[in-house]
Amino acid sequence: MLHILFLFSLILTSTHVLAQDFCVANLDGVLTPSGYACKPESKVASDDFVFSGLGMPGNTSNIILAAVSPAFSAQYPAVNGLSISAARLDLAPGGVIPMHTHPAATELLYVVHGRITAGFISSSNAVYVKTLTRGDIMVFPQGLLHFQISSSKRPSLAIVTFNSPLPGLQILDFALFANDLPSSLVEKTTFLDDAQVKKLKGVLGGTG
User: Which residue has better confidence, 33 or 169?
Assistant: First the structure.
């Protein structure tokens, strides 16, 4: 009986030493692939676990008529290390979140109001598209190209969640046309002609 109690005590002690309830990000530190270093627990307050940044609409007066308001570890330090984050998605009529990927996370989208046509492309190039309305959710598996488009004459709102505090983002259009990759290489790899590539680079701020 004594050896059982000793073993149980040892397990509890080891768990207490190794377990960490949270790791509120120290944003003054360096961001690493595994996240930020932890703020000392003595400096953690209740306010660190609350984020109000998703309560206001984002500014959709831009080229894509859309806005994403993130609650990732850089904006919401409490999610650092907790395998979760969120964002607010505002779409004006005609708004679009272009084809993009999140290399480090699966995304779950919940429509608060409006209509959003959303979809993704699998690694075998199968296409999955659905028009979502209030209360619908849709999942976009990690790393796959996906998009969201407004299908409403009124603004649409969605809340998205990720299974990572740092989901990562690469937007296909910007990756191709918003940098200095030579136009000749873009043309070879996309089968677009020179005029189309130059036009898209001009719209998105690319050079070369």
Answer: 169
Count of domains for the chain: 2
- Residue keyed to tokens 């609650």: 71
Position 9 confidence tier, pLDDT thresholds 50, 70, 90: low
Q: What DSSP string describes 60-89? A: --STTSEEEEEESTTT-GGGTTTT-EEEEE
What's the pTM value of the predicted model, to 2 decimals? 0.85
**Which pLDDT value is given to residue 17?**
46
What distance in Å separates the CA atoms of residue 25 and residue 80, rounded to the nearest whole number? Answer: 6
Q: Which amino acid is at 72?
A: F
Provide the pLDDT for residue 208.
79
Once rounded to an integer, what is the mean pLDDT over residues 71-98?
97
Domain span at residue 69 reads 43-164
**Residue 5 resides in a domain:** no
* DSSP for 107-174, written as a single string: EEEEEEES-EEEEEE-TT--EEEEEE-TT-EEEE-TT--EEEEE-SSS-EEEEEEESSS----EEHHH
Determine, yes or no, domain membership for 20: no
Quick one: 147 and 76 in the same domain? yes
Give the chain's length.
Answer: 208
- Asked, for residue 37, whether it belongs to a domain, the answer is no
Residue 102 annotated as binding site: yes
Closest-CA residue to 83 (of 49, 38, 34): 34
Q: For residue 97, what is the domain's CATH number?
A: 2.60.120.10
Residue 146 known to bind ligand: yes
